[in-house]
Design a protein that fits this description.
The protein has 73 residues and is mainly alpha-helical. The protein contains three helices and no strands. The chain has one domain. The longest helix is centred in the middle third of the chain and has 23 residues.
């Protein structure tokens, strides 16, 4: 619970520091999105998951469920 409270405060302080360095809200936001995307990519790399395969399997299962529901009628 403490981490959930302190983490956003640390984010705000870091965001303000980068904002003061860049003097641009949009550049600062872009930097933070880029860092988040890098960590997201590292998660897939180290977990050895291919996000395209995961999405493909999810869509395939969804179509199977829809097909089975339409065949019951």
């Amino acid at each position: 619970m403490i981490g959930m409270f302190i983490n956003p405060m640390g984010f705000d302080v870091l965001f303000k520091m980068v904002l003061d360095l860049t003097k641009s809200y949009w550049i600062t936001t872009g930097i933070f999105y880029l860092v988040a995307a890098c960590f997201f990519g590292l998660f897939f790399y180290y977990s050895r998951l291919n996000p395209l395969v995961v999405i493909y399997e999810w869509i395939k299962d969804l179509f199977k469920k829809v097909k089975s529901l339409t065949n019951k009628k």
